[in-house]
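Technical annex, item 7. During the second reporting period the consortium partners agreed on a shared format for inverse folding records so that results from different sites could be compared directly. Each record opens with the tokenized structure and is followed by the designed sequence. A conforming record, contributed by the partner at site C, is shown below for reference.
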């Protein structure tokens, strides 16, 4: 369930993609799962089982490509996490608004975000077991209403299959435009399969458990994206009504007002679960970078009782709180580009480790030989290229500024590595 929340948290956040077209959103959910999510999950399963170290993907790339590439992967991913986890207080506020609470006042908005962030940060300080148990409870509470929604609506929806998937795209929108409209948000909804690898040393039997959880989590996420959207489109075929925070309205159309309210509460739990799992995974990056001397050694300080990197957790949570003032669309686009850049280094590590360490014990091994490894590395790379071209065509200044910031801050940390306050502990 922690992996589920590192990636998904249910169909919340998919609503706006429907405006690209009823048939198109269903195609994108399945196609991006195959081209994007499956290769990342397989990559994470193989390397996570072979190198079950604290820091996860940082250690994979460091061993496969080199220390500087490992640092680049970790830094880009941490920047991505700063943006990614900052989205969830935004979604929390949106779903609270959908339940009828007026949060237009800036002070009230900030107070609500703080009321979410502070207790969930404390849960993280208490450790991975506590965080995982909370994630399990949140997942059950938010998924049950959607199971009820599916039980009510799946048969009637199947009887109207042709009406649901037609037309493929919104009126007057070309196929290319429809794909471009929904691509970033769908990719964002499938980010994070490698995230929880950062706490491998805190898992029991990580080489076995981590790959198993990934292989269970992948179909679970796809099903809880595809089926609620499918049923919802039968009840609310007007795509203009599919806006951010509209799941309570859609659930009401399927099963009545009570179901709509429960699904709205589920949106709050989804945002909370995504935040608590994202903070758990991301906070280990400044910790492990500090251990290797790239960041201040104060980040290696562990809580006296819970043995968690308390300063790294609190600092990360504070950054997320500040960034949560931006809009969902701004954060999601930046998210995809940062994550994709780090992901390319992880696939390079997968390929090189197959070559330079063929005898490395791999409890989970991608089947099909080296050719399959190359294929599953190329598919996400092509999608990354398409997303980058789309971003450059619409916001090239923002894109270049983003990577300039990542590069400048990364170079600063590299230069500081040899200074006294940044020495490894």
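Designed sequence (site C submission):
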């Amino acid at each position: 369930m922690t992996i589920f929340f590192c990636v998904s948290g249910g169909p919340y956040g998919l609503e706006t993609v429907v405006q690209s077209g009823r048939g198109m959103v269903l195609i994108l959910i399945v196609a991006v799962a195959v081209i994007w999510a499956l290769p990342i999950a397989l990559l994470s399963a193989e390397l996570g089982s072979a190198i079950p170290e604290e820091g996860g993907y940082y250690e994979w790339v460091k061993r496969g490509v080199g220390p500087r590439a490992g640092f680049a992967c970790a830094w880009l991913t941490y920047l991505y996490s700063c943006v990614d986890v900052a989205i969830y207080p935004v979604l929390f506020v949106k779903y609270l608004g959908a339940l009828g609470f007026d949060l237009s006042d800036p002070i009230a908005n900030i107070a609500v975000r703080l009321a979410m962030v502070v207790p969930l940060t404390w849960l993280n300080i208490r450790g991975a077991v506590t965080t995982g148990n909370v994630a399990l409870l949140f997942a059950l509470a938010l998924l049950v209403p959607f199971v009820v929604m599916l039980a009510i609506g799946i048969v009637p929806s199947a009887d109207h299959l042709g009406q649901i998937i037609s037309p493929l795209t919104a009126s007057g929108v070309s196929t290319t435009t429809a794909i471009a409209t929904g691509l970033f948000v769908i990719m964002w909804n499938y980010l994070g399969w490698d995230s929880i690898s950062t706490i491998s040393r805190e898992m029991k039997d990580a080489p076995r458990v981590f790959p198993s959880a990934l292989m269970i989590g992948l179909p679970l996420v796809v099903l809880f994206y595809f089926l609620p959207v499918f049923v919802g489109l039968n009840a609310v075929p007007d795509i203009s009504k599919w806006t951010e925070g509209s799941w309570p309205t859609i659930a009401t159309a399927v099963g009545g007002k009570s179901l709509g309210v429960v699904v709205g509460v589920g949106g709050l739990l989804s945002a909370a679960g995504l935040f608590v799992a994202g903070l758990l995974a991301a906070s280990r990056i400044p910790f492990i970078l500090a251990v290797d001397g790239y960041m201040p050694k104060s980040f290696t300080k562990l809580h006296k009782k819970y043995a968690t990197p308390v300063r790294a957790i609190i600092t990360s949570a504070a950054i997320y709180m500040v960034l949560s003032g931006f809009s969902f669309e701004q954060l999601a686009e930046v998210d995809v580009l940062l994550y994709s850049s780090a992901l390319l280094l992880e696939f390079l590590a997968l390929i090189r480790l197959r070559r330079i360490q063929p005898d490395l014990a791999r409890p989970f091994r991608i089947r099909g030989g080296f050719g399959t490894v190359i294929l599953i590395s190329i598919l996400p790379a092509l999608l990354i290229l398409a997303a980058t071209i789309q971003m450059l065509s619409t916001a090239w200044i923002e894109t270049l500024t983003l990577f300039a910031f990542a590069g400048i801050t990364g170079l600063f940390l590299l230069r500081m590595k040899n200074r006294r306050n940044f020495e490894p502990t």
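The chain has 15 helices and no strands. Residues 53 and 200 are 5 Å apart (CA to CA). All partners now use this format for quarterly exchanges.
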